[in-house]
Automatic annotation (TrEMBL):
Example GO molecular function: D-ribulokinase activity
One CC-aspect GO term: cytoplasm
Protein name: Ribulokinase
Keyword Kinase assigned: yes
Highest taxon in the source lineage: Bacteria
Gene3D superfamilies: 1.20.58.2240, 3.30.420.40
Phylogenetic placement of the source organism: Bacteria, Pseudomonadati, Pseudomonadota, Alphaproteobacteria, Rhodospirillales
UniProt record, GO biological process: pentose metabolic process
InterPro entries (alphabetical): ATPase_NBD, Carb_kinase_FGGY, FGGY_C, FGGY_N, FGGY_RbtK-like
Record-annotated Carbohydrate kinase FGGY N-terminal domain positions: 7-263
The UniProt record lists the keyword Transferase: yes
Family: Belongs to the FGGY kinase family.
UniProtKB keywords: Kinase, Transferase
């Protein structure tokens, strides 16, 4: 069997499940499978997982995907991993260490959404360190350094035992190969590693926050690999667990959203990226733009060098609650309680035809979507949502109007982020959309109409898994690298163009959106005295 006849596996570990997809080398999805992951919430703001449970879910997903694809173990040439930016803690003998005093040692993962380290994140921000310029000026409690600070302060016993700390994607690569090599993506985006510098750590900053010893203690004190670089072959143990062979190579991994960006933008890595950005949209939304030069944008994470592809800088915006906000609107409206069917599907069926006929369905109803804070571009985790224009109406019409106005607000939030990007050198004309929002014709149309951009969607059903498979393909061909591998595997696309007849209505509503931001800020100041 020639190398070109072999297949590549992409693994995606999300918040609630591990998924695996088997791909041909031209990017065709041959089969996929998923298995749930256990989660522990011992107290408010604490969210934990079990790394061995995650690994077992990965192994089962890979085995099931192979079976569905009718692919034998010796046909798999490479594998790539992506995962949430969760923190894994291990001792010097690679045994799990619990992350909460009084909890079991099997709960050795602080999940990305865990907010136990809010105080520590604020302390990081107050240092004013230069390295903060590379994360939009504000440290998030969802990044790894505040979590490590919390662990050192509140679980000193296990901190002292710690022999390694991993971003979850790096842990999966380690578990697969036995190699401690780290990906440029994970440690640049979540650990304040400056990949473009000879000395990538801001030692003065680490000293200020009490983590001067952490790079060595976490096993992270060596140069990171480029995304998709060869890590090693599978170890005998992991090959047996995954149902593969030791001939299978592993490429350096990605954070899950970044894999989605690669899966949708990979074809364009050698092109004019200033005109394109990736939007990975589900419960929340990540916005990722790539450029050949660093761009510093207040309230937008980055610039991160090499975080998605070698030689390119990443700026990363986001909205903390998008799909989750629509779920909340559905849950709070009385009409949806008696509906007896999927409210999102119902709204989509009813609204799309109306949107074709009337660009503004609710002229006096307006929403600010910051119900879980504003990640970008305001970087205000304390921001709150606003609904202006409610009446006592509890009818179907009232529900549809509120659903539509909320969907508009989500799209205006994306336009707000695009405006911030375009003010610093980008010229965004194409939104490459992946995630759950691709299934909503209402959101797809609004993203196009509100921003004036083409919405581009991959015909591949699993672009995040495709992005991970591209990592394996790059590891197979170090000479061609990630750009060639991703271009070869990129799928066909469907383009949704904006409706120019809706432009004036959305421009007017977008101006009101900004007025609401200003009024909320004024009211918050008055309330604070």
């Amino acid at each position: 069997m020639s190398l070109t006849d072999k297949v590549i596996i992409g693994v995606d570990v999300g918040t609630g499940s591990a998924r695996a997809g088997v791909f041909s080398q031209d990017g065709k999805l041959l089969g996929s499978a998923a298995h749930a992951i256990a989660m522990n919430k011992p107290k408010p703001d604490f969210v934990e997982q079990d790394s061995e449970n995650i690994w077992q879910s990965v192994c089962q997903s890979v085995r099931d995907a192979l079976a569905k694809s009718n692919i034998a173990a010796n046909q798999v040439a490479a594998i790539g991993f992506d995962a949430t930016c969760s923190l894994v803690i291990r001792d010097a003998n690679n045994r799990p260490l619990g992350v909460t005093p009084g909890g079991g040692d099997n709960w050795d993962v602080i999940v990305w959404m865990d907010h136990r380290a809010v105080r520590e994140a604020e302390e990081c921000t107050k240092t004013g360190a230069k390295v903060l310029e590379y994360i939009g000026g504000t440290m998030s409690p969802e990044m790894e350094l505040p979590k490590l600070m919390w662990l050192k302060r509140h679980h000193r016993q296990n901190w002292d035992k710690m022999g390694a700390a991993y971003d979850l994607a790096d842990f999966l690569s380690f578990r697969a190969t036995g190699s401690n090599k780290r990906s440029c993506c994970t440690i640049t985006c979540k650990w304040t590693y400056l990949a473009h510098q000879d000395d990538p750590w801001d030692r003065a900053f680490l000293d200020q926050i009490g983590l001067d010893d952490f790079p060595g203690k976490a096993g992270i004190d060596r140069k990171a690999l480029g995304v998709g670089d060869l890590i090693a072959n599978l170890s005998e143990q992991s090959a047996a667990e995954l149902g593969l062979t030791t001939d299978c190579v592993v490429g350096a991994g990605l954070i899950d959203a970044h894999a989605g960006a690669l899966g949708t933008l990979g074809e364009y890595l050698d092109g004019n990226l200033d005109e394109r950005f990736a939007m990975i949209a589900g419960t929340s939304t990540c916005h990722m733009a790539l450029s050949s030069e660093p761009r510093f944008i207040k309230g937008v994470w980055g610039p991160y060098f090499g975080a998605i592809a070698p030689g390119l800088w990443l700026n990363e915006g986001g909205q903390s609650a998008t799909g989750a906000l629509l779920d909340h609107i559905v849950a709070m409206h009385p009409f949806s309680h008696a509906m007896g069917r999927d409210a999102h599907k119902f709204a989509g069926e009813k609204l799309l035809h109306r949107m074709m006929e009337t660009p503004d369905l609710a002229p006096r109803l307006h929403v600010l979507p910051d119900f879980h804070g504003n990640r970008s571009p305001l970087a205000d985790s304390e921001a709150l949502g606003v609904i202006s224009g409610l009446s006592l109406d509890q009818s179907e019409e009232s529900f549809l109007d509120l659903y539509w106005a909320t969907a508009c607000a989500i799209a205006y939030g994306t336009r707000h982020i695009i405006d911030a990007l375009n003010a610093t050198g980008y010229e965004i004309k194409h939104i490459h959309l992946s995630g759950g929002h691709t299934a909503s014709p209402v959101l797809v149309k609004l993203y196009a109409d509100v921003t004036g951009c083409n919405v581009v969607m991959s015909d591949c059903a699993e672009p995040v898994l495709l992005g991970s498979a591209m990592l394996g393909a790059a590891a197979l061909d170090p000479e061609g690298g990630l750009a060639l591998a991703s271009r070869r595997m990129a799928g066909k696309e469907t383009i949704h163009a904006p409706d120019q007849t809706a432009k004036d209505a959305h421009d007017r509503r977008y101006a009101i959106f900004h007025k609401l931001h200003a009024h909320r800020q004024e009211l918050d100041a008055m309330a604070a005295g």
